[in-house]
Design goal:
By secondary structure, the protein is mainly beta. The protein has a single domain, classed as Beta Barrel (Porin). The protein has 1 helix and 20 strands. A hairpin with a 2-residue loop joins strand 13 and strand 14. The two termini are 33 Å apart.
Length: 381
Amino acid sequence: MKIKNIIILVGLTGIVFAETSPLKFSGQIRQRYEMVDKDFSDSTGFNNNNYLRTRFAVAYDEGDVSTFVQLQDSRIFGTETNTLKDGTADALDVHQAYFKISNLFGLGLNAKVGRFEAAYGPQRLLGAVGWHNIGRSFDGVIFNYANSFADIDFFNFKQIEVSAIDDEGDFNVRGAYAKLNIMDGHATQAFAIQDNERMTFGGYGKGTFSGLNYELEFAMQNGSESDEVNYGGMMYGLNVGYKLSGITISGGIDFVSGDDTTTTDVNESFNTLYATNHKYYGYMDYFLNLPVHTGGLGLQDIHVKMSGLKVAGHVVNVAYHMFNADQSSDSFGNELDITLVKKYADNVKIVAGYSIFMPGKLKLENGANGSFAYLMTIVNF
């Protein structure tokens, strides 16, 4: 048989196998070049880095049982100083590996066990942090039960396992997240999250009224730690938008409470737990870890945004943030984020962005602005 015919036969065999096999393969390669100057100092310039994230996944789905395994390599160009000798791949990991069983024991209960991304609601408290070059996943289990009124996830995530002998010192995140069927066309959700001794509970809703899109989320925290710290923080987000000719104009406020130091036995600083904060508090990421990145002062983010503007084949999104503190009359500063998105092919997207942060008194060093620019290419297969 001629070599040409062998190649054709192998190719046809692969196509048939791919179409009939319960195994499904997928992947993503994402490269991002960043120029970062965030220290508000005239004496330093941009720090340039190239980030590369590679993911490859295989899924199996047959009847009531399915599995998903996703490997990931995350790296920064040049950190392996000798690629001929250094093959350690320090950031090569199993990003997700789980199985799902439907209708467990015939009770209508679904189970998801293993390592997985967990993104609930708008990700203000539990998110996958997809912007990050690694991203977040949890080890644990989710039980799901759904009926005509509610779709509820009960979850238990193991964050820290200290000892194989007993559970002293272990750190678990437990809770429930419910999607409620209350009003057609409106999403209503309620949640309760316990991380060790702290409890976070609240609700989320979104929908449309008379052409206006709204989103509202509210959460409170209580509990105590070692009988020394009592939690008492709160958080809310309110956004309203209007869509006209494909362009959405929106505005709103995100509030995270700070600690009133006049009360010694209550810590009013709200902790955003495992949130995707890059999505909300400016793309320059000055407020990723709350309350740490505000020094416990809290955060009030008043913002206006425009998305969906099409210019020369690009989609342009603009956001302007005004960052103030809850427990201070001074300002952290203002930030402008501009993003351009280009669909290069069905499976290829190019994203470019530029941000500038104009510091207020709480971040001022010598008056210099902070800047950030990036160019990112995402290829899915």
